[in-house]
Amino acid sequence: MLMAIDVGNTNILFGLLEGEKVLGSFRQVTDPARTAADIGQAMARDLEALGVRPHQVEDAIIASVVPPVMDALIAAVEQTVGKRPLVVDEDMDPGLPYEAEERLGADRAVCCVAAVEKYGKPVIVLDFGTATTVDAVAADGSYLGGCILAGVRTSANALFGNTAMLPQIDLVLPPTVLGRDAVTQIQAGSVMGAIGSAEYLIRRTKKEMGYGEAVPVIATGGLGRLVAENSDCIDVVDGDLVLSGLRLIYERYRTTGA
Length: 258
Hints:
By secondary structure, this protein is of the alpha/beta class.
């Protein structure tokens, strides 16, 4: 059994995989102040809740965009399951060819690797997380580029934090863009605005890629389904994309050592 771990800015996702099958998953908050003992104790409880004994985890792999949590997380995995995890961009390259002045975030590279394997190339990947990202992979499998904007919930939280009288809301799609109260107006602006921006970015991305309209668009991340269900620009919602990518990178590394 492989433990695949995706460290995002808000949450750490732990996935348990047997081959291609995701057996279960759990999350912890991403907090650099947490110790290895804190993370390990929560991990042990979550494994137990899934009916998994720590010794059943045969190996682990991590993709992270939050370096300050890594020492404690690596130690927690070692202490809990007895395995030192492999780390993308440190122990192995994700295997996504591209030319740029700086490395692509490990989570985005992992999702692109999975999208190419599962849905072919060229392909467009949208990840709706703390940030919303758009990434494009060319027909030859190389990374073309992408863009980053504030995530739907991040934008809404900034709105609440910088206004005195606007209420907190649930991120759901209201029946109309013309709300009659503050809650439905914020929902319309937040959710419909996210849908509109995603559709615009997809159209521009396809135009710049130059392959026409047939390029598949894959969505992942916490709010990916909400956006996709209300847009005809997204072809597939794959909530396990990052876990699939981590598995593929792990299997390639174990086979080739690269």
